[in-house]
Amino acid sequence: MNRNLLAGMFLSITTLAFGQDDAAKYAESITPADLKKHLVIIASDSLEGRDTGSPGQKKAAEYVSGFYKEYGLTPAATATDGSKSYLQKYNLHKRSWGEVYVKVGSKKYEFNKDFYLNGLLNVPQESSSEVILVGYGIDDTSYTDYNNQDVKGKSVIMFEGEPKSADGKYLVSGTTEKTKWSGPVSWQAKARVALDRGATYVFIITEKTGEDLDKEIRQRAVMARRFSAPTLKPVVETPNSVAAFAVSSGIAAQILSTSANKLSKEKASIDKSGKPLSKQMTGNVAVKAERQSETIETENVAAFMEGSDKKDEVLVISAHLDHIGISDNGEINNGADDDGSGTVSLLEIAEAFSKAKAEGKGPRRSILFLNVTGEEKGLFGSEYYSENPLFPLKNTIADLNIDMIGRVDQAHASDPKYVYLIGSDKLSSKLHEISEEANKKYINYQLDYTFNDPKDPNRFYYRSDHYNFAKMGVPVIFYFTGVHEDYHKPGDDVEKILFDKQAPIVKLVFHTAWELVNREERIEVDSNKQ
Questions:
Q1: pTM of this structure
Q2: Taking Cα atoms as reference points, which of 56, 19, 10, 4 lies closest to residue 376?
Q3: Which of 19, 81, 156, 295 has the fewest CB atoms within 10 Å, counting from its CB?
Q4: pLDDT reported for residue 1
């Protein structure tokens, strides 16, 4: 064999061996004890669950930034004054309910406790009006409740549904078939008729009572949260279009200065006679339904380690910093696993790379350690980054995203040495291959691809921050160990984290990252399995 060729092969093998030894050496700095040391701070009660934009979330950002600074990582964002900063600030915009009530005399009825509201309404100051009962509030060719009824400038109150005779036929259709005046969205047709006739506000007497009504109000309260969800763009609303208060027969009776029993008889009279109300019932009511604008100021934490000869290419390693904050009953959701486990994993990986760089073994490609916020609200921090990248996405080689790796799910209760990998093969076959090789050489955990299946109903691929990179064509791996009984609950605490199980997963991310930033060729985007 050619002597020069033999020497070259020996040099290549030796260099590779040293490279492998270096990776293993620095990976050893990732320890269960250090992970716990950071997590007892990140998931402490003093941070009050790290709700997006809250003081606790900002304390977490400060802690993480301070750590990156200590280990020599440079700030990657730019502050408003032009100076460099670890904080990539952005705003979320929110429209929410302020004070909302229905008042009869001196009695105030509480929103989402005594009644609920269909649609959007903005009544910033208390507004009083006369109220008139308009039967079922129907205006149809074969039946109308509005003959000789002048509702202009008045509020109207009406029964839910539509009249039905003793033989089971509906008065409007003349058959046993319901019409648009019945069903879960019938309030829209009724409210539109009333408002078109000049009515001020619409009240609908729900047929539900007791526990059924309480359950309905709770469910509607949850549904109404969609009107209070934050967005990246300022919210544009069109209140006062079509809306209706849903009230019990008891509240309706108070409004009309009568009794629930008499209202029930009026309703039965319409059904029996097949004719609208013959007796006019009126009253007075005051309402307030305040919509408020809110700006939530939050920030991603972005710390940069510059590479050497391939520094223009960047690997992103990400996790979300925020959690869901404090429950309505005052309990703190510390989010030790979700995603305190990912947050502290980034710190340990950053420390390992920093130690390597300090000893002359720094990465060839650059690394961005990205702790995003807004994940729990809708992946907003990573979306903001993908639309306002600190480094061009065309130069971003991959995103390794860590979200919940500190616990064991029911499917793996008997063997904690596993991790779900999601997305590794969807855009780059080489990324998947590198991940598999790193696991086989260094960790030897079970790599579970259950949730990588496009048919998986959980759709986890779309539910964490990596997706905002993947949809831009950046290869990703999502590291995850599954949902457990404390997911989004106050029980997600530090003492339940399995640090001995977590540490090898963090090392797997490190070894995968090490290969990605030090290999000669950038991984290719050679598939699209999204």
A1: 0.85
A2: 56
A3: 81
A4: 41
Map residue 388 onto helix, strand or coil: coil
Encoded tokens for 101: 């009530």
At which residue do the structure tokens 């609908």 appear? 204
Q: What is the pLDDT of residue 168?
A: 87
Neighbouring residues of 215: CB distance < 8 A, sequence distance ≥ 6? none
* Contact yes or no for 434/518 (Cβ under 8 A): no
pLDDT higher than 50, residue 138: yes
Residue type, 347: L
Helix (H, G, I), strand (E, B) or coil at 475: coil
From CA 436, how far away is CA 434, in angstroms rounded?
A: 5
pLDDT tens by residue, 393-451: 999 999 999 999 999 999 999 999 999 999 999 999 999 999 999 999 999 999 999 99
Question: What angle (nearest 5°) sits at the alpha carbon of residue 445, between those of residues 439 and 449?
Answer: 85
Q: According to the model, what pLDDT value does residue 226 have? A: 75
The residue to which tokens 């604008």 are assigned: 293
Sign of CA dihedral 118, 122, 124, 129: negative
Strand, helix or coil for residue 149: coil
Range 183-197 burial, b when 16+ CB lie within 10 A, else e: eeebbbbbbebbbeb
